[in-house]
Amino acid sequence: MTVIGTDVQGMELFAAAAAVRDRYPVRISGASYPLSPVSEGFLAITPRSFDRDLPVVLGALGWGRPVALVRDTHQVGHFAAAATESEHLDGSEQGVGADPSASPGSAATFVLPPLFRRRRTRAIATRVARCRPFSIGPIQQVHAVGVGPWVDERAKDLLPAADVVMTDWTYVNTFARISGAGEVTPHVVPYQFDDFDANIASVDAILRDLQEKGVTRATLLIEGNPDTYDVLDGLSLQGRLVTVTPGVPIGLLAVNSVGHYFARDPLQDSFAYFSGLHSRHRTPPEQFLGELTCYLAAGVSCVLVEMFRGDVDLALRAMALAGGEITAVLMSDFFSESAHETIVTSGSDDDVRRALETTRGRLTTMLITKERLT
Question: By C-alpha distance, which of 306, 307, 331, 324 is closest to 369?
Fold first, then answer.
């Protein structure tokens, strides 16, 4: 399945992340929780030279941001991990939480800083506390499948269990295109763009209801990549085993669809993918501004997601602080009938107003890049 052209953005990276998701776990409430290297945002890079790329990699790790390296022939990841006492994971081996039929991402490695582990542990523990406790019964097997615009009527093997849980967005925009959709029982969860943690608790509740009714196998459909900013980000694993078939995050697919505006692919060599809703992740606004500014100043394109209530003002301020000619593209409700895009090339009051109007009340992704418009 080819969704995006280059490896640094494509399925190779997310297959590798799925392969290592269980090799760096934490214990919470008696259960083992995986720490996916792409779960809380990340820097993805294909190193071109040691002196050019090591500084930006070290900078990301200093902010507590995991780094994904594709074809790291310069061994930047090994040196960066040693310098920052970070974990270095190779995605060439299949992990127990990965789909055994998926191809391993042999060319991708990950560096996970200690701050990431501490932050993720706190976040998962907080979200799991909102989930219904597991009582007594058989283990429930949940297979999370990444779906999206690439799905069509020819798609196969996406529904391994008869009970399929999904959001209303997926039900309306994707589910009907999956082969065999009419032969399973859908369980639809209203998606709340203004309360992401409530979505996790809602999905957990439906799966617990099914478990208590004797359903031991269920499929969970997730737009994009199951591990990246979605309901696996705190789903209770008490009495439950979760496996993953990876996909490409929906934000990257949106960026790929506007790439024709630029003379060069803005994600070709490197990009940072993280949330613009820093308050949800308890990231101080000063850190969000500093991290975004540093990436942009280094020429790394940034993809900001969760911009329904994301900090557009700080994102535009980072554009000004980073210097140079920078373009932002706001992509709202992509892959639906209400898709809309807005291009911002300066920090004028009119640009700020248009940007805010674009993001509010919509499923929005924001690309910020130094690549030139055609």
Answer: 324
Q: Is 1's pLDDT higher than 50? A: no
User: In the predicted model, what is the mean pLDDT of residues 181-185?
Assistant: 92
- Cα 196 to its chain centre, rounded Å, is 13
pTM metric for this prediction = 0.89
Rounded to whole angstroms, the Cα distance separating 153 from 141 reads 26
CA neighbor of 229 nearest in space, from 245, 207, 251: 251
Phi, psi (5° rounding) for residue 366? -125, 120
How many helices (H) and strands (E) would you count in the chain?
A: 10, 16
Question: H or E element: which one contains 56?
Answer: helix 50-62
State the Cα–Cα distance between residues 193 and 42, nearest whole angstrom. Answer: 22
Length of the chain: 374
- The amino acid that residue 8 corresponds to is V
pLDDT tens across 191-245, in order? 887 788 889 999 999 999 999 999 999 999 999 999 999 889 889 999 999 999 9
Residue at 19: amino acid letter: A
